[in-house]
């Protein structure tokens, strides 16, 4: 059956023809390449290289960036791409988010001309894979106190420290790593093969299983001087990357929710108990109706945010709201959908528990739910409540 | 009105659809001529009741298939205001070419024919039916088995004409039919086995049947999970493939909800299960309570008999 | 030498078709697409053009919404896009074939690719009819095609089986589903397609007078409801069931 993504308030009518076409290309690819293979990839814990190649070929990496072989699309188009990828699997969308928003974007915004020419076109094509090293084993919500250190040794920088929970790390050709140089956070491009750099994979995940999650380990890692991102200092650098990724996630979560909603609806209509489809029972309809409400609200948030990103009138707190709200509702929808599926919901015959497990990660990464909550709290009151200090 | 039928041959013998076309034409009334391209089946055609004359059009151009050459060779001998062909691919190509040449409208694959001329045909792969009024003169192609055949008993005269027509399609090589098995997602007929097959090696019987009738072979999730030998690529169902064949034959499949999702949009479902309470009988159009051991050979016998026509 | 591809826009083949007021309800169609066999023709046309033909011209005949087919063709490499605007929902074969033949002449292409039949009408008259009007050769049920020098080679399902054939000179090729993978448009293609203009013309401009139709649509109706499922005991009933598959269900 043709996939009909829930669109109760007809967001489709607000899109341009190109945005629709781009969305449909990704949607068709997810149908053909991801859905038939995702459960297997999940069981094996692999991210097939063909997916990287296909995604590169579609030309959707670094969607909103202009120039240097990048697509130069609207933020709405970027959002739609994330929505369709995540309808497939959050891990697949994470690959694209990291590549585009967390690696291509900082090079594009803060890098030197040489760095942009060297890396961006080959990342846009998917030839080079990147990863983003901010989070550390002991510094997650509090990146400002990170301990990865860079020292200026005259001819080179010496990097020491470790990063953790890094998507794409083990398969990455390059990493944008944030480290303190003389106490100030700077961005450095570390390449696979640089002396003293390893990226072991983290195993044993119950979430984002079809995605590569790694540690980045720097032990007297020597990197050439020309690898520092010249134009940014402090947390502004990583935070602006995260804002872009979070925007994509707010759409992506809608995609995951749509997938869970569709599965629940189809299941409820075909599952007969007590002589009737369970879709005829009030408690089931209540759940489906709640899902429809939340998805519709989330879509409108995401769509309007995309317009604000495109015309430059956005503020980071608006992104926090969308990311937090949409991921939260998607996770609840996944759980509720699993309930509707009954025991069948625990099988990988259905996508719901995979989405549910994935969304646990999505709720935590790119700023935890609670942190975004406090970002909004600070915006409302003017008083920060992240820490005990004044 | 004068009716010309272009016969269809099966190797060298007349395809049954020819007698069906004569049957259809008889309902309209008027002298019926049959043209036999390449001369195939002309003797049989002359024996169909209701045929006034048979024209056997022969020539080198019929040694290989070139639709423009064949229709060019036949066209001068068409006198009828109603030209009928079968709706096989060849029949449609010939009727389209002749119709275009003569400025006739052509309507393909009709399933009913009334004076008027009014015809019905299926559209959207059978999801709807359309009724069309066609002005005469016209060309129509007839769906096989949609019309009653005329009886045997005619004694029409056969005239032979020799034509020479330029052939523009040069056949370089006949290719062996691809040995590859059809994919479940694309086949018109899918035969799926479930855990009721007892043993993965028993799927060989399904393959034999499938090869005989040109079907693809699938499997239920239960079969795929239980037996390593049955690969995931054969799975029909939620995370396997969704199939929409014209005919889905479910053998030894209970019909649990996961499997149903993948095959529910099949046009027709035939279920074979030895358990009369199996849920699959709730969705099957035709259900047979029997063991697969007895059923598969019988299916093979009767299906191949009908399908080789 | 250019290659032309004829594309028809049809409801997505998995769409639900409903009939209301003796007509298929078009407003209920949520997704339109290029007819599947035409997609194979388009893929081969793009490949032929890449192998050295001068240009690829995509042609469609239909209402405004059909221009989407041309944009999709442009996004995978079509150079020129011709849209003959018509709003007639039912067109007899003579009219449609005259329109398409004129459009092909306008395109200047000697090699024409199209699907072997459209997913809505399921007829298959267009390819051979157009070839006949233009005096071109016609090769049907093609699954592979390539160009060598001035000649075109193709694999086609003939009346005796699969064959490799060769044609020189103007020809229409009708396509069946092949082994070839359909290329996906990518973002670059989609954005470039925006820049390719669509030549929209009416039948008058083509010099076609649409006279009184030689065939007209009387009505659409839904197929009869499937009878409720029938259950039989024992393998002995298989002969009866197989007969029903042929006579009742018409699936064999």
Care to give the gist of this entry?
With 390 residues, chain A is of the alpha+beta class. Chain A has helices at 17-34, 38-44, 49-58, 75-88, 90-110, 113-124, 236-270, 282-311, 316-340, 352-364, 369-381, and strands at residues 66-67, 70-71, 130-133, 149-152, 156-167, 174-181, 184-191, 197-198, 213-224, 272-273, 276-277. Helices cover 51% and strands 15% of the residues of chain A.
Question: What is the CATH C level class of the largest domain in chain B, in words?
Answer: Alpha Beta
Categorize the overall geometry of chain C: globular
Q: What strand order characterises the main sheet of chain C?
A: 11-10-9-12-8-1-6-7-13
Task: Examine the coordinates and then state which fold CATH places here, giving the name of the CATH topology of the largest domain in chain B.
Answer: Rossmann fold
**N- to C-terminal distance of chain C:** 44 Å
- SSE pattern of chain B, N- to C-terminal: EEEHEHEHEHEEEEEEEHEHEHEEH
Q: Determine the N-to-C terminus distance of chain B.
A: 31 Å
Number of helices of chain B: 8
Globular, elongated, flat, extended or rod-shaped: what is the shape of chain B? elongated
Q: From the coordinates shown, what is the CATH architecture of the largest domain in chain B?
A: 3-Layer(aba) Sandwich
Radius of gyration of chain C: 20 Å
Strand order of the largest sheet of chain B: 9-8-7-10-6-1-4-5-11
Strand content of chain C: 25-35%
Most extensive chain interface and residues per partner: B-C, 84 and 86 residues
Largest β-sheet summary of chain B: 9 strands, mixed
Number of helices of chain C: 7
Give the full name of the CATH homologous superfamily of chain C: HUPs
């Amino acid at each position: 059956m043709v996939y009909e993504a829930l669109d109760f308030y007809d967001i489709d009518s607000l899109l341009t023809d190109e945005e629709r076409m781009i969305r449909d290309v990704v949607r068709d690819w997810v149908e053909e390449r991801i859905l038939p293979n995702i459960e297997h990839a999940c069981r094996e814990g692999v991210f097939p290289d063909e997916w990287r190649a296909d995604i590169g070929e579609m030309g959707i990496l670094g969607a909103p960036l202009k120039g240097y072989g990048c697509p130069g699309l609207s933020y709405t188009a970027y959002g739609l791409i994330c929505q369709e990828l995540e309808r497939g699997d959050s891990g697949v969308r994470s690959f694209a988010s990291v590549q585009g928003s967390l690696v291509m974007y900082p090079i594009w915004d803060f890098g030197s001309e040489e760095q942009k020419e060297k890396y961006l076109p080959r990342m846009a094509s998917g030839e080079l894979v990147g990863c983003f090293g901010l989070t550390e084993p002991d510094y997650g919500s509090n990146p400002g106190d990170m301990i990865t250190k860079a020292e200026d040794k005259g001819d080179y920088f010496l990097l020491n420290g470790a990063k953790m929970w890094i998507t794409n790390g083990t398969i990455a050709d390059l990493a944008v790593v944030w480290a303190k140089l003389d106490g100030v956070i700077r961005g450095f491009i570390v390449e696979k093969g640089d002396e003293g750099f390893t990226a072991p994979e983290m195993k044993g995940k119950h979430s984002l299983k079809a995605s590569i999650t790694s540690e980045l380990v720097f032990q007297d890692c020597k990197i050439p001087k020309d690898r520092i991102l010249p134009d940014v200092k402090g947390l502004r650098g990583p935070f602006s990357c995260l804002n872009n990724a979070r925007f994509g996630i707010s759409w992506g979560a809608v995609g995951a929710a749509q997938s869970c909603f569709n599965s629940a609806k189809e299941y409820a209509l075909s599952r007969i108990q007590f002589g009737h489809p369970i879709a005829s029972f009030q408690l089931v309809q209540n759940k489906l109706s709640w899902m429809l409400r939340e998805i519709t609200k989330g879509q409108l948030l995401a769509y309007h945010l995309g317009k604000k990103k495109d015309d430059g009138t956005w503020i980071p707190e608006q992104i926090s709201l969308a990311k937090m709200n949409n991921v939260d509702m998607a996770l609840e929808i996944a759980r509720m959908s699993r309930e509707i599926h009954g025991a069948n919901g625990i099988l990988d015959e259905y996508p719901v528990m995979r989405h549910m497990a994935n969304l646990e990660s999505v709720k935590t990464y790119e700023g935890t739910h609670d942190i975004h909550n406090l970002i909004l709290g600070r915006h409302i009151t003017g008083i920060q409540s992240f820490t005990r200090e004044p | 009105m004068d009716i010309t039928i272009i016969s269809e041959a099966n190797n060298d013998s007349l395809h049954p659809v020819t007698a069906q076309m004569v049957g259809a034409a008889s309902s309209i009334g008027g002298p019926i001529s049959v043209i036999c391209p390449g001369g195939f089946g002309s003797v049989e055609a002359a024996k169909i009741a209701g045929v006034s004359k048979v024209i056997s059009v022969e020539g080198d151009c019929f040694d290989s298939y070139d639709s423009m050459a064949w229709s060019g060779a036949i066209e001068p001998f068409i006198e009828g205001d109603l030209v009928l062909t079968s709706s096989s691919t060849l029949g449609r190509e010939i009727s389209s070419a002749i119709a275009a040449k003569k400025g006739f409208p052509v309507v393909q694959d009709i399933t009913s024919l009334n004076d008027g001329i009014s015809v019905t045909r299926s559209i959207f792969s059978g999801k709807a039916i359309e009724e069309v009024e066609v002005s005469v003169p016209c060309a129509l192609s007839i769906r096989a088995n949609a019309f009653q055949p005329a009886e045997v008993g005619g004694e029409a005269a056969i005239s032979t004409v020799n034509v020479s027509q330029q052939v523009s399609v040069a056949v370089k090589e006949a290719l062996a039919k691809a040995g590859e098995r059809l994919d479940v997602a694309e086949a018109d007929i899918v035969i799926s086995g479930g855990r009721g097959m007892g043993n993965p090696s028993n799927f060989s019987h399904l393959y034999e049947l499938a090869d005989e009738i040109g079907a693809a072979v699938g499997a239920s999730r239960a079969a795929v999970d239980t037996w390593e030998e049955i690969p995931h690529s054969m799975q029909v169902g939620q995370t396997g493939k969704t199939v929409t064949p014209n005919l889905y034959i479910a053998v030894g499949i209970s019909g649990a909800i996961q499997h149903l999702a993948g095959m529910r949009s099949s046009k027709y479902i035939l279920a074979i299960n030895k358990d009369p309470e199996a849920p699959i009988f709730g969705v099957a159009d035709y259900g047979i309570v029997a063991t697969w051991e007895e059923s598969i050979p019988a299916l093979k016998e009767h299906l191949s008999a009908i399908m080789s026509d | 030498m250019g290659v032309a591809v004829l594309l028809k826009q049809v409801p997505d083949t998995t769409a639900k078709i409903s009939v209301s007021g003796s007509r298929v309800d078009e407003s209920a169609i949520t997704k339109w697409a290029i007819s599947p066999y035409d997609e194979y023709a388009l893929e081969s046309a793009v490949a032929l053009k890449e192998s050295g033909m001068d240009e690829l011209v995509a042609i469609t005949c239909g209402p405004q919404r059909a221009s989407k087919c041309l944009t999709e063709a442009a996004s995978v490499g079509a150079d020129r896009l011709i849209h003959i605007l018509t709003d007639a929902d039912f067109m007899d074969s003579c009219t449609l074939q005259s329109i398409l033949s004129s459009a092909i002449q306008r395109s200047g292409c000697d090699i024409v690719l199209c699907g072997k039949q459209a997913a809505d009408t399921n007829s298959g008259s267009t390819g051979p009819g157009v070839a006949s009007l233009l005096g071109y050769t016609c090769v049907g049920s093609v699954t592979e095609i390539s160009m060598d020098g001035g000649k075109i080679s193709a694999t086609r399902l003939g009346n005796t089986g699969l064959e490799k054939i060769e044609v020189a000179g103007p020809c229409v090729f009708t396509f069946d589903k092949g082994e070839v993978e359909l290329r996906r448009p990518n973002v670059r293609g989609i954005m470039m397609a925006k820049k390719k203009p669509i030549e929209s013309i009416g039948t008058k401009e083509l010099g076609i007078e649409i006279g009184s139709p030689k065939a007209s649509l009387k009505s659409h109706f839904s197929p009869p409801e499937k009878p409720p499922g029938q259950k039989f005991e024992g393998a002995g009933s298989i002969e009866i069931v197989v007969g029903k598959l042929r006579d009742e269900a018409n699936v064999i």
